[in-house]
Amino acid sequence: MNGGATATVLAVTAHGPRDPNVTEVVLVHGAMDRAKSFRPVVEHLPDLRVIEYDRRGYGESTPAVPPASLAQHVDDLLDVMGDGPTTVVAHSFGCVVVVSAAISHPERFRGLGLWEPQVPWMEFWPGSVRRGLEAMAAEVDTDALAERVYASMVGEGAWQRLPEDLKARRRAEGAAFQSDVVSGLTEPFRWEDLKVPSLFGVGLQTWPFAQEAAARLADSQGADVFTIAGAAHSAHVSHPEQFAQFVRRSTSIR
Question: What is the pLDDT of residues 86-136, one digit of tens each?
């Protein structure tokens, strides 16, 4: 699968030995991100079979038609996963995709690693954050939306230094990003319907509401919380070795 694609034109890459005795894990990225950001994490997991992919409309999967619904992301994930029960680790909005899939097809999942699930539909989510997301959902120019969000992530100076072709590729992700935002504004599932064993992760330097979400959701699931000191939301980028430990823990929960 290295460098290959599924029938839906998704860019899927596999790392590590193809062996039935080797643990397999699928990594799912969040909004305005791509599988490439997990590569430093993968370097710390040489003994595992790790599969990562660009979700529809992002990165090398931009040729795929942007998702029309969350259900389309769920179908894509199930296509990427192996036939047997698989551990899946997700970041941010990727958790919404993974939990949706695990609720509808629990037999396909061995365990879940959920790093800072973004749940703006829940009552404790800050109103100011939700209003910002509602404005993004209503944005007509998705290219401009993507540019604004990406520049806020990397800094205006870093954005301006990007080659024009790369700027164009990032802008093209705006439609997929907006679809992610819309999918999270209304309740896509009930957490009490999730029956797959899960591990929640959170950085101790992240937003307070994300820390509250991880604690509340873990409590509701009777699950543990894995923390990384000094890490914020993008711990897979800033603390890849520790995030790899989170992945390993996720493969061993029952």
Answer: 999 999 999 999 999 999 999 999 999 999 999 999 999 999 999 999 999
What's residue 8's pLDDT?
52
Tell me how far apart the alpha carbons of residues 220 and 223 are, in angstroms, rounded to a whole number. Answer: 8
Q: Are residues 109 and 206 in the same domain?
A: yes
144 and 237 fall within a common domain: no
Query: Which pLDDT value is given to residue 181?
Result: 95
- Which domain covers residue 166, as residue numbers? 127-177
58 three-class SS? coil
CA 226, CA 212: separation in Å to the nearest integer?
13
Record the tokens describing residue 223, joined without a space: 């699950």
Q: How do 4-5 and 11-15 pair as beta strands?
A: antiparallel
Q: How far apart are CA 148 and CA 171, in angstroms?
A: 9
Taking Cα atoms as reference points, which of 90, 80, 61, 72 lies closest to residue 235? 90
